[in-house]
Amino acid sequence: MSLATFDLTPLRRADRWHPAELAFWLLPVAAYLVFPDNLVLLTQIAITALFCLSLDLILGYAGIVSLGHAAFFGFGAYAAGLLAANGIGDPLAGLAVAALASAALGFVTSFLVLRGSDLTRLMVTLGIAMMLYEVANKLTDLTGGVDGLQGIEMTPLLGRFTFDLYGKTAYWYAVAVLFLLFWAARKLVHSPFGLSLKGIRLNVARMPAIGAPVNARLSAIYTIGAAYAGIAGALLAQTTQFVALDVLSFNRSAELMLILVLGGSGSLYGAVIGAIVFMSAHHVLSDMNPEYWQFWLGALLVVVVLFARDGVMGGLRRLSHAAGGLRKGAR
Amino acid sequence: MDYALQTRNLAKNFGGFTATNNVSLNVEAGARHALIGPNGAGKTTLINLLTGFLEPTAGHVILQGEDVTRLGQHQRVKRGLARTFQINRLFADLTVLESVTMAVNERLGLGARFWKPVGAHGQAVEEAVALLDSLRLLDVAHEKTRSLAYGKQRLIEIALALAMKPRVLLLDEPAAGVPTTESRELFESIAALPRDVTILLIEHDMDLVFRFADRISVLVGGALLTHGTPEVIANDPKVREVYLGEAICA
Amino acid sequence: MTVLFDGVASGMLLFLISVGLSVTLGLMNFVNLAHGAFAMVGGYLCVLLLNRVGVPFLAALPLAAGLTALVGVVLERTLYRRLYTATHLDQVLFSIGLVFMSIAAAQFLFGAQQQPLTLPDFLRGQISLPGLDMGAYRLFLILLSLVIAFGLQRLVGGTRFGAELRASVDNPRAARGVGINVERVFTLTFALGTALAGLGGALGVEMLGLDPGFPVKYIVYFLIVVAVGGSGNITGSLVASLILGVLDVAGKYYVPQIGAFVIYAVMVVMLIFRPQGLFGRRAAR
């Protein structure tokens, strides 16, 4: 092959939107029409998807393991909640403050997290989240402790859309934020920065030898991931007008891992699909019995790790490969 | 004399063990310099000290006249020092073009661009394509690295280092594990590298070393035994004793 | 003085439970977050044996430990061994899955309430010395733990089994080559770790309480012991447990406002400055 005839299309087109993706983003509209009575649940799904997206950025792309990602979710939730409870009820201002607060926390803690092995990272992230949990638990004057943070009053979105009883505004608000941030994340992972993150995950030892400052890159994505998580937390605080202490809990971090593993990491869509599957299953199963739900959740985690490590997205990829093979065979 | 890479009294101790012992190495600009020595002579430790992967216990590393002893790996790379690895350190799930483009991005300072897609940074992509062309890797450019034959993967090791446009290139046993038929082709590619790139080569295969190098240093027990032109080294009785003897007898 | 004594006792309990984790993590390189679940199994077994079957306490302890080990062996043979070579992340996810299942199962079988446990008379009294009140049970706990710590140290450091274990961990292939049954060694080690967890869980019902939330509530404590003590290090675990036990009891006694915060902070600081633990054998590579 010569330079003149070389085809650059596969690289140039790597970031183009696939029709299936466009169809995927019609789902929120369809869900709104089909389940108009479940808007609260659908809003929760969008928020969880955004939270999971933030973990996918740091774990799925950059390979940073974390057992305490709820720290940023909770920090953002309290930041937005406290802002609104103290008279500044503008939703977008709340998102901005939460994003900045969580990003700052992420940036500072990134220096603690980035040193050491995976095992150290798991334990340090866990420890940091537990510390925050204890602080929130003890600062009852500020956070309400175990009773939760109450008194959150939101002003209308953009000055026009009031948060209504049916949760319509909340739903479209959450979906719009999710889509915008997904779009930005998608740009990011296809950029040279995103490529260098994949490089770090695939072979961290090589990166300095091609002149890449590994720690600076990891610090950057950890900060961005924290900001995303903070925004997700803020959305939860604003749409439910309540912050429970469990936004910072170990269970939330662990569940998030499960959702990402379930959906498949490193593809962005896996995070969203995982959230849809997980939250829907939660809704259906925990209606039957909350204890059974936790049992099956655990069993699912075990099965996924042992037999289906690449999650739903991996399954879809294998399916499409098989279908492609069949088509080729037919020709 | 113009030196591309020098060390002054470089030393490295691990606990009580001296891996590098007072090494003062001079690599002339534009040289094809080979570093040889029996197993355990400390060749890889020396490379690691040169590239900044390890910090020396004492001594200095001087790159094109500048003392880089305190600089990290990626900072030395920015100053023109690139290396390959004895054991492949590649990006298994990236395509060949993606890998090399990523490396070029870093050299051009584009690695932190987070908005426009990789393919939209034309200069980097074009340069990567040209580099792959020069190493005759274009026909596998869109293949995943993991799917390539070992000899081709060794070439990608070199492509990643060349993407740095190095002034000095350290090749750590580039032909290790490559079948003889493929290693000839590999060394043709290496021999064809531009003469203004200084090359320091670590290699076991004496045939290759004597064909390729114009300057040879011999490392034994962490210390420099001697250095000189291939003829001088080949006829040095000390070298024959500690090193070539076993190679020739074998 | 009494605070110190109580701290030592709770540290010893912590040691009993954590040392098994230290062994699986340090020697077998498996991150088993479900370790607390095995302790919980031991606790429930002990309560069942005492209250339903009527086994005396001193007999219930080894029985609970043995039965927990049996559960451990079954799980090791069927599930754990598939993941010995997996990444730490996979091991963590897998063991969190087990934790969730165990919590749900305990809730289903025993309900959410704390389990009552009646100690035999001779362990219930107080032994009073000038300036020091010693609970008989705590004294019993300390003595028993010391015996076990000593025995373990001998087992790993000075017996053929210990040597086989260390060889199997350092280089499984070479160990197989010299005729060591690596699978059996790992299974036995895992059984030992879970037996100790079960014993600790049984002994801990009196002091830590027992409810379905146990595996999550205390896992951080166990991890801290391993982090501070250096994984795979029995003496390190013992010292770390004692420090943690005393700090924890003293902290709750003197400064209840800050609660468990200090403990977590200690863990994070430790991990950052001494990732190989206070008594780590090898330097970080």
UniProtKB/TrEMBL annotation, chain A:
Any GO molecular function: branched-chain amino acid transmembrane transporter activity
InterPro entries: ABC_transp_permease, LivM-like
Pfam families attached to this UniProt entry: BPD_transp_2
Membrane-spanning parts: 22-51, 58-80, 92-114, 170-189, 220-244, 256-281, 293-312
Major localization class: membrane
Topology term for the membrane: Multi-pass membrane protein
Lineage: Bacteria, Pseudomonadati, Pseudomonadota, Alphaproteobacteria, Rhodospirillales
Signal sequence region: none
Name this polypeptide is given: Branched-chain amino acid ABC transporter permease
Subcellular location(s) of the protein: Cell membrane
Keywords noted in UniProt: Cell membrane, Membrane, Plasmid, Transmembrane, Transmembrane helix
Cellular component GO terms held in the UniProt record: plasma membrane
UniProtKB/TrEMBL annotation, chain B:
Domain (ABC transporter) ranges: 5-246
UniProt KW keywords: ATP-binding, Nucleotide-binding, Plasmid, Transport
UniProt keyword annotation of Transport present: yes
One GO CC term on file: plasma membrane
An MF annotation (GO) of this entry: ATP hydrolysis activity
Gene3D superfamilies in UniProt: P-loop containing nucleotide triphosphate hydrolases (3.40.50.300)
Pfam families: ABC_tran, BCA_ABC_TP_C
Residue ranges of coiled coil: none
Name under which the protein is recorded: ABC transporter ATP-binding protein
Species of provenance: Azospirillum oryzae
TrEMBL record, chain C:
GO MF, any single term: transmembrane transporter activity
Keywords on record: Amino-acid transport, Cell membrane, Membrane, Plasmid, Transmembrane, Transmembrane helix, Transport
Subcellular location, principal: membrane
Cell location: Cell membrane
Transmembrane segments: 7-27, 57-80, 92-110, 131-152, 185-208, 220-247, 253-273
Membrane disposition: Multi-pass membrane protein
One GO BP annotation of this record: amino acid transport
Keyword hit for Acetylation: no
A single GO cellular-component term on record: plasma membrane
Domain of life: Bacteria
Record-linked Pfam families: BPD_transp_2 (PF02653)
Family listed: Belongs to the binding-protein-dependent transport system permease family. LivHM subfamily.
Protein's recorded name: Branched-chain amino acid ABC transporter permease
